[in-house]
Specification:
By secondary structure, the protein is α/β, with parallel strands linked by helices. The chain has 13 helices and 15 strands. The N and C termini lie far apart (about 55 Å).
Length: about 300
């Protein structure tokens, strides 16, 4: 095709692109998302439209590729980190010191230090975590957040850590430990199961313990004490949390901790807004460096009970 013809067709393509009535709202986003436009390969005009489509979009739609969340964090000098502060040994706000403790607290500091910024913790809850993330109340969230398909559909999650160390189990009073060996033993009307609203523990309980008496308690970190004091019989929790609590509270037991409920083994990840690829790439880079130099394994040994040199 001659150069003059190519220029003419390019101008026509540009005109088509910026005639709002020609492309339905949302269709443009679909084309950009999939990275291709469906055209007739035998038609020269279609070829020109396809060739010229993405360059004009980059030139005339600068918000499609914004300066970046990472730039905002660096400019303000702080990274806003959402956390529930109620999950030992992930992220727990120690009332005696006013400081956050756990593996996620350490990962938060490592990420902030790598950026040369300070941490601004933003309290959230399991019930409001997703909404708060999508409302841009924080840049990232770390508090023992399970990686799952439901979250991945609406938000971004980092590469995994703690692979194979998390699974659903129970906390109960030590005096009752022999009573509970299976889900069927728990799924009875006379068994009081206390759950924190909004997270995967509540989801598991409502799906699998339909006959048990479910008690919703807003303070996740207080539920083990409620169990110990006889206010309820069972807490549905994660294996790592159960192990941490039986070390802290001698009245508690975790009789099934070595055999998490079937289908519940998972890992954790760092939560971000969907589409923030630059920040996601950076966080994954930090995790990769920690994995490479052995620091991530050391943190998993310290907080999550990973065996030294165990395969992941």
């Amino acid at each position: 095709m001659k150069t003059l013809e190519r220029v003419a067709y390019t101008l026509i393509a540009l005109a088509i692109l910026f005639m709002p009535n020609q492309i339905e709202a949302g269709h443009l986003d679909e084309i950009l998302a999939r990275g291709m436009i469906h055209v007739d390969p035998t038609d020269d005009l279609s070829e020109i439209i396809a060739d010229s489509f993405f360059m004009p979009m980059a030139l005339f739609m600068p918000n499609r590729a914004e300066a970046g969340h990472l730039d905002e964090i660096l400019a303000r000098g702080t990274i806003r980190i959402g956390t529930t502060g109620d999950y030992i040994p992930m992220s727990w706000l120690n009332p005696a010191t006013g400081e956050y403790e756990g593996i996620d607290a350490e990962l938060s500091k490592i990420i902030a230090d790598s950026l040369g910024v300070a941490i601004e913790y933003v309290p959230t809850t399991w019930s409001t975590l997703a909404d708060d993330m999508q409302a841009d109340k924080f840049d990232i969230a770390l508090c023992g957040i399970s990686r799952n398909f439901a979250r991945a559909k609406t938000m971004a999650m980092s590469d995994a850590y703690g692979e194979g160390l998390f699974g659903k189990t129970i906390l109960c009073r030590k005096s009752d430990a022999k009573k509970f060996k299976t889900v069927a033993d728990i799924n009875k009307p006379n068994v009081r199961v206390m759950i924190n609203p909004g997270g995967t523990n509540e989801k598991f309980a409502r799906a699998n313990l339909t006959n048990a008496t479910l008690i919703v308690h807003d303070d996740n970190a207080d539920i083990p004490i409620q169990i110990a004091e006889g206010k309820a019989d069972i807490m549905i929790t994660e294996t790592v949390e159960a192990v941490s609590w039986i070390k802290r509270e001698p009245r508690l037991a975790a009789p099934l901790v070595d055999k998490p409920f079937e289908g519940t083994i998972h890992s954790c990840g760092i939560l971000m807004a969907k589409g923030d690829q630059e920040l996601l790439n950076y966080v994954n880079f930090v995790l990769a460096e920690l994995r490479m130099d052995g620091r991530l394994q050391q943190l998993e040994i310290k907080y999550l009970g990973r065996k030294a040199n165990a395969a992941k």
